[in-house]
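sorry to bug you again but im stuck and you know this stuff better than me. below you get a single protein, a line of residues and a line of whole numbers that encode the local backbone shape. mainly i need to know what kind of three dimensional shape the backbone takes. anything you notice is useful, everything is just below:

***
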Amino acid sequence: MNASELRRLLLAKEITSVEIVTAALERIAAVNPSVNAICTLSERALDDARAADERLARGEPVGLLHGLPVGIKDVTPTAGLRTMYGSPLYAEHVPAEDALVVRRLKEAGAVVVGKTNTPEFAAGGNTYNEVFGRTHNPWNLERSAGGSSGGSAAALATGMVALADGTDLGGSLRIPSSFCGVVGLRPSPGLVPIHPSDQVWDTLDVAGPMARTVDDVALMLQAIAGPSPFSPYYQPIAGRDFVAAAGAGIGRGRRIAYAPDVAGIGVDEAIERRCREAAFALAQTGAVVEEVELDLAFARPAFLALRGLWMVAHHHHHLDRLERMGENVGGNVRRGLATTTEELGAAERARGRLWHRLRELFERYDQLLTPCMVIPPFPVEESYPRTVAGRVMETYVDWIAPTFVLSLSGLPVASVPVGLDAEGLPVGIQVAGGPQGEEGVLALARVIQEAYPIGSPPI
């Protein structure tokens, strides 16, 4: 069952949180050995579920996520629960306090059942690290679940948790959502503040909700969104009802743009066809769908430069231990250290140019649709795919350019399934909106998901 349905039954006292959490733990025991999505279990989960049931029995006020099992990405600190960042540097590390997003989830009544696997320090589009190993795609265990929130996506797809948190710098939330057939939303920077963080002025990395349905993503977003004194960035939240917005429909006259290859790297023919069909089928709802030429390839070098700066800033306190980091993270930091001031200046100018291109687009259209992953899930043993549509990638992250160029915009972007390919693997489409446009993104994503149900993975 999805989180919204579980919540309805819980509040009606037709089921209990203990029953739900027990089922989640049983599912983890049955499936996780094959998928490797959960890397640390919470020993307090059933106690927290009992406490949730007791509050409801006493008639006390309960939160939006009361009694629901949630998975927390292993780069997000959890008080008293091991958080290793997928790195040997943090072997058996147990934080003293919860991250802000975890605190808000708990305040909303969610029950943390465990931590979800991630690449070391969330750097990479395939979820693998030296501590916990590889996370497998539940639709085909020989394929990648994506990254870096691959553990969260795989856990959701297999019913190990009802909700999960993700982070997204260049697509870390959307990539695994697309590969695993779940829904993920990258919100506008500041809508879900990140704390603790030494990079309080960061506008690239965001935290966001992941779930099996758009309604559940909206429910979780409602619980975790809102300004915080810990963050200088904020988005207005007063009067915003994401749950209602998701269910409002799109109505006639919605203006939707479709762009097949925003990053200029090519797209697998079958994936592009599936996304195109889904986009233009929206005309049956009364929407106006038009294909647009949107070439954001110029922003690819800009993201790489700014990502390099982010890596150096994020790991500045680890610079004396680069040799102890994995090849992926260490290589990222070294490339960042080699980035010049001239390259950073050019990157900022390119980012401004991209912003204005999209600002002008959203003056004409309500939302933008474009393929999320331009290739199907690749073999889990590979760190990344070398080619896209027969074209050799220039860098090891170029294959995720369709997500990372949109990260630069700071606009809300979701990934939602639009069906399965010929191999039975999920295909995801990105839904992007204008400034503070989460409501419209959720509404359109829900219409798309309802039109293309994919069921559950064979595992």
About this structure: Residues 3-451 form a domain with the Amidase signature (AS) enzymes fold (CATH 3.90.1300.10). The chain has a mean pLDDT of 97. The CA atoms of residues 372 and 429 lie 5 Å apart.
